[in-house]
Structure formats: C-alpha cells, structure tokens
Design a protein that fits this description.
The chain is α/β, with parallel strands linked by helices and 81 residues long. The protein has a single domain (3-79), classed as Rossmann fold, CATH 3.40.50. Helices cover 21% and strands 25% of the residues. A 5-stranded mixed sheet has the order 3-2-1-4-5. Helix 1 packs across helix 2 (69-76). The chain is globular, with a radius of gyration of 11 Å. InterPro entries: UPF0180.
Length: 81
C-alpha cells in the first residue's frame, strides 16, 4: 500500500487517516518523505510557502483548507492501493 504525504501542520488529518488504516508520511522542504506516495495533503494557505508550486507530482494534491478529516479521507480513498 502506498502512503499519503501529509503536511506537518495537518496533524489532525494525519491522525484521522492513520486511524482509518492509511499509512502517512510527512512532507519536508516541500517534498514527501517517500517517493511512492499515492496522494499529497496540504493546507492551501501554505501552498506557496512550501515551494510546491515549482514541483510536479504525478499524484493528486489535495488542498485540505476548509475540509474535515473525513472529507479528506473521502477524497483520497480512490487513490489508496
């Protein structure tokens, strides 16, 4: 199973995803800790600060701003292997 990369500021979402059995890894310097992630979850207000606008990922990047952990989980479910 691939992991989901979650921005450090979204620990409540990471905790929820892990409780649902979804492995999570952190994001450091705008990059996931592992290369084999199935989705990236960020806080939209930090998008430009993280430098992610210059990095191209071949996975969905989910903006968690304004979403509940349950809504984020629903959005990543199709990508979890």
């Amino acid at each position: 199973m691939y992991a989901v990369a979650v921005e450090p500021a979204l620990s409540h979402i990471r905790d929820y995803l892990q409780a649902q059995g979804c492995p999570c890894v952190g994001i450091h310097n705008g990059k996931p800790e592992r290369a084999d992630v199935c989705a990236i979850v960020i806080n939209g207000t930090d998008r430009n600060l993280m430098g992610m606008q210059d990095v191209v990922y071949d996975v969905p990047v989910i903006d968690a701003a304004g979403l509940t952990p349950e809504q984020v989980f629903q959005r990543i479910q199709p990508y979890i292997h």
